[in-house]
Design a protein that fits this description.
The protein is an all-alpha fold and about 525 residues long. Helices cover about 80% and strands about 0% of the residues. It has 22 helices and no strands. The longest helix has about 35 residues, at about 290-325. The mean pLDDT is about 85.
Length: about 525
């Protein structure tokens, strides 16, 4: 199958999967797995394999960078200890438990640890897709864990692969040095790339060039870190977190609007394609397994899926009570969660695209030229575990959330109302001074004052939870509806002028872009 045909097929499968998921109220990743398995029935698709070393570089940097840019630094700082423990010790414990189970089922220790490393990390995108109903703090902790634990898993994975192919040896000092290099070197590279990124973004006026730098950043961080044998994942995450903090001060509005139009689509496509590949890989690996290996693989999928949940629950509860015994500070008590909420976190440990990328990156051959032992079994079991966790835990999570009776998280709405109110009040107070400094005509200042007064009244009414028939709310909705109708009328006029050949298509596109921006602003305000 040609590359163009494959692109069209995967794009169509991605579209069908999401449409069906929304039509039947099923999480899209679950539908994409099924669609991918069906696509994998096509022989030409099933035989196409990406080079193992390309999988991690093509998919992970973009996904991790976007997750880092869109997470909450404040919540990560507040819950840093828990995130670090879950992204390091829990990953190692999970990988070790899975390795022991896989070895008991007949895998050599090297491939067993490779399998353990592949299924140990949770997936940030899968967490985001399934855990939208959870409070912000819990979602941030889960996402923070998912961002950092990839680095730990890849160190374990690299060590296991290296030992298997004969390039590495195991000793405590050597492993400690590998982890120190992975995290220390990765953090240093991430900070360096973020510093270069900041300086370039301050100097570039062209939005296209600015966003080109943004696209290059995660790949550069990953490549530089891997070049010095550090963790590319840690480098990407650190670079993204730093940029998330400084970007509001240095990134221009037009750069940001363009990025928000491109990155969500890119990550949507990449993540969807990875879930499709899970289904395709199941078909591929299934046809390369013997009958006896298939039986072992199915047993391994069931056993490992249970172990993943069991180890996660044991770690969450044991670490929580251990921290309570050691740290009795009032600040720590404020961060405590109850056992019902902790149970939700235990169920939300989804595996996803990262595990698949790790499994697919297993080398095909050893240095001796022999096939990597049990590679097809590793890929099949990893794919099966992803399917089980997404299906079983994905269907179970909403029920567990209802059982836990977690209060609705209103903190985001409250903080947004606070920010809008304070920002508008201070702008309103500064209006006469700014108008005088700019030499603005008093009538223009008065127009702006009236608009700000109306806007501030609507913001205060929304913040106070006023009824829909509140005069300020009614005036705000009427104003938005009128402006939207006028925008539609202006757009129809501009199109008519183009049809009459009185203006060029270039002029139409320029005016339409401005009208689109105004419509989006009005629509967002009306939805709020």
């Amino acid at each position: 199958m040609h590359a163009l045909e494959l692109v069209v097929l995967l794009g169509a499968a991605l579209l069908v999967g999401h449409v069906l998921g929304r039509r039947f109220g099923i999480a899209p990743p679950l539908v994409l797995l099924i669609v991918g398995a069906l696509v994998g029935l096509i022989p030409a698709v099933r035989q196409m394999q990406l080079p193992p070393e390309v999988v991690l570089l093509l998919f992970l940097p973009v996904l991790l960078y976007w997750e880092s840019l869109t997470t909450s630094m404040r919540e990560i700082r507040n819950n840093l200890r828990g995130i670090v423990l879950m992204s390091t010790l829990l990953v190692i414990a999970t990988a070790g438990t899975v390795a022991v189970a896989a070895h008991a089922l007949g895998l050599p220790w090297g491939p067993a640890w490779v399998l353990g490393a592949a299924v140990a990390p949770t997936d940030a995108t899968a967490v985001g897709a399934f855990a939208k109903s959870l409070p912000r703090r819990q979602v941030t902790v889960l996402r923070g864990e998912s961002l950092i634990n990839d680095g730990t898993a890849l160190v374990v994975f690299g060590l296991a692969v290296g030992i298997t192919v004969g390039e590495e040896h195991f000793s405590l000092p050597h492993v400690s040095a590998l982890f120190l290099l992975a995290y220390g070197g990765g953090a240093a590279v991430g900070a360096l790339v973020a510093w270069v990124n900041m300086n370039l973004r301050r100097r570039l006026d062209d939005p296209l060039l600015g966003n080109l730098v943004m696209i290059l950043a995660p790949f550069t961080a990953y490549l530089l870190a891997e070049f010095i044998h550090a963790s590319g994942v840690v480098a990407v995450v650190v670079s993204g977190l730093i940029m998330a903090y400084v970007a509001p001060r240095i990134i221009r509005a037009e750069h940001r609007r363009q990025a928000m139009a491109v990155w969500p689509l890119a990550t949507f496509i990449i993540n969807g394609v990875l879930f499709l590949l899970v289904g395709v890989e199941i078909q591929y690996a299934l046809r390369h397994l013997s009958r006896s290996d298939l039986g072992t693989a199915l047993i391994a999928i069931g056993l490992i899926s249970v172990l993943l949940v069991a180890v996660r629950f044991a770690f969450l509860f044991a670490s929580a009570y251990l921290i309570r015994l050691i740290d009795r500070r009032p600040k720590q008590r404020l961060l405590r969660i109850d056992n019902r909420t902790r149970t939700v976190s235990g169920v939300a440990g989804f595996r996803g695209a990262v595990s698949l990328a790790v499994a697919l990156s297993v080398p095909v051959m050893l240095d001796s030229g022999e096939p990597f032992p049990d590679r097809d079994l590793i890929v099949f079991v990893t794919s099966g575990v992803i399917v089980v966790t997404l299906v079983v835990q994905g269907l179970l999570l909403p029920r567990v959330v209802r059982w836990a009776r977690i209060p609705r998280d209103t903190s985001v709405d409250e903080e947004q109302s606070l920010a809008e109110t304070v920002a508008t009040e201070e702008a309103f107070e500064a209006l006469p001074r700014i108008g005088a400094e700019l030499g603005t005509d008093p009538q223009v200042v008065d127009w702006a004052r009236q608009e700000y007064e109306a806007n501030l009244a609507a913001i205060r009414a929304r913040g106070a939870g006023s009824a829909d028939d509140d005069p300020a709310m009614v005036r705000s909705r009427d104003h938005a509806a009128l402006r939207l109708a006028l925008v539609a009328h202006k757009r129809a006029t501009v199109v008519r002028l183009r049809d009459e050949r009185r203006i060029d298509d270039t002029v139409l596109r320029r005016l339409q872009a401005a009208l689109d921006d105004e419509e989006v602003r009005l629509t967002e305000r009306e939805v709020e």
